[in-house]
């Protein structure tokens, strides 16, 4: 016999049953139980009450826990059975778990844990082959003993011993053995009562309570809840019933709407020490990194499943109709296949917080009981604690009080809820609000929409399902000459779906705006419902009533998209008491469930949130004074309503003029922000003067410099979104020709960016005094960007002064000693930064300390967002191109009144 593997000391537990050593023989698989008679095993009927309690708790965890939970149980036992010797192993990035779920390194012992829902011989064979062969490949001669640890939940286990004997023939120099959950219990029973309490919990205080436990646990197991089935049953089924998905006989599957590419929002990479022009492109790479659909699942979600990723959520953001909910459904399906427990929550249902919603509303609906038992609530919490539960939170923007939804959610992710993995969806404008307390806690991915070739595939698939291939070909032909605005619009899954459904019913002219597409779909929607007779003359009344309902709901902070029946009837009955029934029958509004605070009160929602916004825009544009909408220009939840209304209003010029006037007045009383706008305007003129051949619009250059709020803002948030809407050529040159920065017209702009990033790194070094010195730390000294700036500048005097500052840094660098630069910087950093600031303000007019307050930053961001919305509104209207260009030319300018006052003060 070989030496004792676990080295468990022979001792007696509280029942007096002697424990035997666990031995592994030579050349063949033997086992602790292989040579033992049944009478030698411990007998539960001989256990004392405490051991009996621990045994039942152990069985419960093995039967009901996840695979990860069984591995955690195994590890908790082993670190106590072999203290100081057994090592836990966790997967790490691309290295995985090295085919090892635990090891005793000094003995060369590797453990592999396996706990599927059901043990099948073929799957066990594959698992043993793959893991043992992988362990041999990775560990080589260091591997002396290999254990296969498995959990038998139900039924008779397969011939594991025979499988291991066959593997032993292939690896005669490695001792191969196994541990079942029964074996683990025998090891657990050999631990002290205190150690067992740590693993399995303290038993009840009285003997009477202990005697009740077997009956309670047995009853629990007889009525065991299958969490996978429950989670699957609670996943949304609305996709199948939604007319947008399955209307007019053409049913779209998740696979039709996704795969959609995403873009990952990344911080800019740290620079290398190489400042050559050919390496300068990495310095200004867009912070949005393209990510293919399959990569999102293979890399992002797989890594998120690792325990190392716990606490970092995933946020999927996008415009309305971008496929966020559909992608979340695809994620739920993927998680189910991985053996995880996805809980899908529509956040418009959330009224009292995540914790009470999960334990009361969700669980009550899942088991179809009036109240969820406490034992079941505790079990759900335990499932969350294992890290196997994923909360899929759909529609942050649809929460009540959506202007505070992000800060509200941030407070929810704590305790056992914080032990879950979280994937949420949110509209872009809500996520990018200034008070976003979740941004640092989530990896952010934005739906990129369909690419041109994917649009064609979607259209072909749609009309193939409709058996109208030729109709689809005609639509594709029409789209070849469609205006850019429409091509951009149908990148969105919702809009291309609406286009296909309306084109299927009536070919002809393509819609020009988003509003026109809504109007066409509305007509098509009525055609689908022709069995439900609604006189055509009554449609305007219904739409007006729905518009008033939608408008008044959006204006409510306590609910916007989840509408109580009493509220709906109150609004619709103002027009006609029959409209509530008609709207429900047609499907414009659909029942969701009941109100949390009153289970007898039904709640409803519009067909899709965007249709609520469409009807609100319709009511305000056709049946009210549309200029009222301009009062909401700075409120994010009104953005889509304003945009749709712009395409409906009969006199769009007055509407746009009113919007522009409100935007211009927004900052007029803040002198500091007006100064900033004056500086950006002056800077754009200086750039045009330095580059006479530049063809970019001054407003686009102003937008570019409005991002120079601070050095760090430039480095992290440099974006071309607003710029591209003002001047598409500017954005294209910046994004596609960014490697050729030595040529006009980008050179002067890039030079200023490099100088600001150099300043940011200089400031960072002030913040990092006392941190460990390493290559990353040295790499982010400002000299890298100072070198790049010198390569770009054509101003001889400026370059000479810049070189002096660069020499001060480089002369202190020594590859053999990083301390020299570090020590010099601690003493001289203030003087160096002051000299650098003086140089770039005098020669480049950048680097000013605007010292904006948080409130001023919020005002400025709202101002910039409103200007972007103004451009979008202009594009939605039918006004002439020349008028649109005039609007763009006058964007982002300081107030004329402010300039007049400044000039007057200067004269006096």
Q: Can you describe what's shown?
A:
- The protein is globular, with a radius of gyration of 33 Å.
- With about 900 residues, it is an alpha/beta fold.
- It contains 41 helices and 15 strands.
- α4 links the parallel β4 and β5 (about 175-180).
- Helices cover about 55% and strands about 10% of the residues.
- It holds the Pfam family NCH2.
Largest β sheet strand count, sense and barrel closure: 7 strands, mixed
Quaternary status: single chain
Provide the helix percentage. 40-55%
CATH second-level architecture of the largest domain: 3-Layer(aba) Sandwich
How is the largest sheet built, in terms of strand order?
Answer: 7-6-12-8-11-10-9
Taken together, the total number of domains comes to 5
Number of strands: 15
Q: What general outline do the C-alpha atoms trace?
A: globular
Number of helices: 41
Overall pLDDT confidence = 77
Low-confidence stretches: 1-40, 91-97, 206-223, 267-286, 773-779
CATH class of the largest domain: Alpha Beta
Beta-strand proportion: 5-15%
The CATH topology label of the largest domain is Rossmann fold
Rg for CA atoms: 33 Å
Biased composition (Basic and acidic residues): 263-276
Protein name: Putative NTPase (NACHT family)
Organism: Allocoleopsis franciscana PCC 7113
Domain AAA+ ATPase: 310-450
């Amino acid at each position: 016999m070989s030496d004792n593997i676990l080295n468990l000391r022979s001792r007696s537990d509280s029942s007096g049953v002697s424990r035997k050593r666990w031995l592994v023989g030579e050349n063949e698989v033997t086992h602790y139980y292989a040579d033992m008679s049944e009478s030698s095993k411990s007998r539960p009927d001989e256990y004392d009450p405490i051991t009996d309690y621990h045994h039942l708790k152990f069985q419960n965890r093995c039967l009901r826990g996840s695979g990860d939970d069984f591995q955690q149980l195994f590890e908790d036992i082993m670190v106590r059975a072999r203290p100081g010797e057994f090592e836990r192993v966790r997967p790490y990035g691309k290295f995985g778990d090295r085919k090892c779920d635990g090891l005793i390194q000094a003995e060369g012992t590797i453990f592999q844990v396996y706990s599927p829902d059901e043990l099948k011989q073929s799957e066990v064979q594959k698992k043993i082959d793959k893991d043992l062969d992988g362990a041999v490949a990775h560990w080589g001669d260091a591997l002396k003993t290999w254990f296969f640890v498995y959990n038998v939940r139900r039924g008779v286990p397969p011939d594991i011993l025979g499988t291991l004997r066959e593997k032993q023939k292939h690896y005669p120099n490695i001792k191969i053995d196994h541990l079942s959950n029964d074996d683990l219990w025998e090891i657990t029973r050999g631990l002290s009562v205190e150690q067992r309490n740590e693993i399995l919990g303290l038993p009840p205080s009285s003997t009477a309570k202990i005697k009740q436990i077997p009956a309670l646990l047995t009853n629990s197991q007889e009525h065991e809840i299958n969490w996978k089935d429950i989670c699957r049953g609670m996943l949304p089924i609305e996709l199948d019933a939604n007319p947008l998905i399955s209307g007019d006989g053409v049913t779209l599957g998740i696979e039709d709407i996704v795969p959609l590419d995403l873009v990952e929002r990344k911080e800019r990479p740290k620079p290398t020490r190489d400042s050559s022009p050919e390496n300068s492109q990495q310095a200004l790479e867009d912070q949005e990194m393209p990510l293919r659909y399959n990569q999102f699942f293979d890399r992002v979600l797989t890594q998120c499943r690792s325990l190392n990723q716990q606490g970092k959520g995933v946020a999927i953001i996008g415009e309305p109709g971008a496929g966020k909910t559909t992608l979340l459904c695809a994620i739920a399906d993927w998680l189910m296949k991985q053996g995880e427990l996805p809980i899908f929550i529509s956040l418009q249902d959330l009224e009292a917080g995540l914790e009470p919603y999960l334990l009361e509303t969700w669980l009550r609906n899942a088991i179809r009981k009036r109240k969820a038992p406490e034992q079941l609530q505790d079990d759900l919490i335990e499932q969350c604690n294992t890290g196997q539960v994923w909360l899929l939170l759909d529609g942050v923007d649809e929460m009540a009080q959506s202007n505070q939804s992000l800060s509200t959610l941030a407070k929810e992710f704590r305790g056992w809820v914080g032990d879950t993995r979280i994937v949420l969806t949110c509209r872009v404008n809500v996520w990018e609000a200034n008070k976003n307390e979740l941004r640092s806690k989530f990896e952010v991915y934005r739906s990129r929409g369909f690419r041109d070739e994917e649009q064609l595939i979607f259209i072909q698939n749609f009309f193939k399902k409709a058996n109208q291939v030729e109709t689809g070909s005609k639509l594709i032909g029409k789209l070849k000459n469609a205006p850019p605005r429409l091509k951009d619009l149908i990148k969105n899954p919702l809009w291309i779906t609406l286009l296909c459904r309306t084109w299927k019913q009536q070919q002809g002219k393509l819609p020009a705006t988003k509003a026109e597409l809504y109007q066409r779909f509305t007509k098509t929607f009525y055609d689908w419902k022709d069995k439900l007779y609604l006189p055509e003359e009554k449609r305007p009344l219904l739409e007006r009533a729905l518009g008033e309902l939608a408008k008044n709901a959006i204006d409510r902070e306590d609910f916007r998209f989840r509408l109580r029946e009493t509220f709906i009837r109150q609004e619709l009955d103002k027009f006609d008491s029959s409209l509530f029934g008609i709207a429900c029958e047609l499907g414009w509004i659909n029942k969701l469930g009941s109100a949390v605070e009153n289970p007898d009160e039904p709640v409803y929602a519009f067909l899709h949130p965007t249709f609520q916004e469409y009807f609100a825009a319709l009511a305000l544009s056709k049946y009210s004074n549309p200029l009222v909408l301009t009062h909401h220009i700075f409120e994010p939840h009104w953005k889509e309503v304003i945009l749709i209304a712009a395409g409906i209003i009969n006199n769009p010029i007055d509407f746009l003029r009113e919007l522009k006037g409100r935007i211009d007045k927004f900052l007029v009383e803040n002198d500091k922000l007006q100064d900033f706008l004056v500086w950006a305007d002056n800077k754009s003129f200086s750039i045009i003067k330095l580059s006479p051949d530049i063809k970019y619009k001054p407003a686009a250059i102003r937008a570019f410099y409005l991002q120079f709020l601070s050095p760090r803002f430039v480095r992290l948030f440099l974006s071309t979104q607003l710029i591209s809407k003002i001047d598409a050529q500017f954005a294209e040159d910046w994004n596609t020709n960014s490697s050729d920065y030595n040529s006009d017209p980008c050179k002067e702009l890039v030079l200023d960016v490099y100088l600001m990033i150099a300043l940011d790194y200089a400031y960072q070094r002030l913040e990092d005094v006392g941190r460990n010195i390493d290559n990353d730390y040295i790499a982010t000294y400002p000299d890298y960007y100072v070198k790049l700036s010198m390569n770009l500048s054509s101003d001889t005097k400026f370059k000479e002064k810049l070189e002096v500052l660069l020499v001060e840094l480089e002369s202190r660098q020594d590859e053999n000693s990083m301390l020299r630069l570090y020590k010099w910087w601690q003493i001289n950093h203030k003087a160096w930064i002051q000299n650098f600031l003086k140089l770039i303000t005098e020669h480049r007019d950048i680097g000013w300390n605007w010292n904006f307050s948080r409130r001023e930053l919020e005002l400025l961001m709202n101002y910039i967002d409103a200007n972007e919305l103004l451009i979008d509104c202009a594009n939605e209207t039918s006004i002439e191109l020349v008028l649109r260009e005039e609007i763009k030319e006058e964007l982002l300018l300081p107030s004329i009144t402010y300039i007049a006052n400044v000039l007057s003060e200067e004269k006096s």
